[in-house]
Design a protein that fits this description.
alpha/beta; Rossmann fold; four-stranded antiparallel beta sheet; 28% strand; globular
Length: 229
């Protein structure tokens, strides 16, 4: 039987605060298939960001195993881990994190340039990615000249331009107004429907409306699946 793009089995992560051990994620298991949008819903401090950091390869679990695209992250060397995840995983955070003096197009192309793509090719691909986000007319504007919603769309284009197997979105609408947030969620839904596996964490129940599956997280524990319409 084939496995999902993302598979996490019995994943735990804890931190030490003085003499006390604080468990952020407790034996979490989940799977995200190709073209599936899975939302992890929970309040701030529930452990969602830690879980996403583990699943997206930014952190390593104290217990459990994680596979992305069929690769066991625990078996990769540091160099292999960095190179594989740079190509296989796209990230979107609450803040866009763009370089303010670069244009929207340059911000997106930078991802491809880091991966070794020639500048002219990277810029052309970035232009196409921004057009898909409805930002063709804003591609030449510096990031600091864009609205918050436009910046987040650029960040999404930057995450998707390398065609990652997995998109990890950590509270991508947290700093946006309701209408803008709905637009970002629609673009993420479109990315999933086009074949990308998406794992998204949020505390906003409205963001679950477009999900294929919704999981709940509380006190580091990932709860059972909740079906959505």
């Amino acid at each position: 039987m084939s496995r999902g793009i993302l598979v996490a089995e019995g994943v735990s992560r804890w931190f030490t605060a003085g003499k006390e051990r604080v468990v952020a994620v407790r034996e979490a298991s989940l799977e995200v298939e190709e073209a599936e949008l899975v939302v992890v819903l929970g309040r701030s401090g529930a452990g969602k960001s830690t879980l996403l950091a583990l699943c997206g390869g930014l952190d390593r679990p104290d217990e459990g195993r994680i596979w992305v695209g069929g690769r066991d992250l625990d078996l990769l060397s540091e160099g292999e881990h960095e190179n594989f995840l740079r190509a296989a995983v796209g990230w979107v955070f609450p803040a866009a994190g763009l370089l303010p003096l670069l244009s929207a197009e340059e911000n997106v192309a930078l991802t491809l340039r880091i991966m070794g793509q020639p500048e002219s090719e990277a810029m052309a691909t970035a232009s196409q990615a921004l057009s898909a986000m409805g930002l063709a007319e804003r591609a030449g504007h510096r990031a600091m000249e864009l609205s918050g919603g436009e910046q987040q769309r650029v960040a999404l284009a930057r995450a998707l331009v390398k065609a990652p197997a997995l998109l990890v979105a950590d509270e991508p609408t947290a700093q946006l107004d309701t209408e803008t947030a709905q637009g970002i969620m629609a673009l993420i839904r479109e990315a999933a429907s086009s074949g990308t596996a998406v794992l998204l964490a949020t505390h906003d129940a409205a963001a679950t409306e477009l999900a294929d599956r919704v999981l709940h997280m509380e006190d580091g524990v990932l709860r059972e699946r909740v079906d959505v319409g």
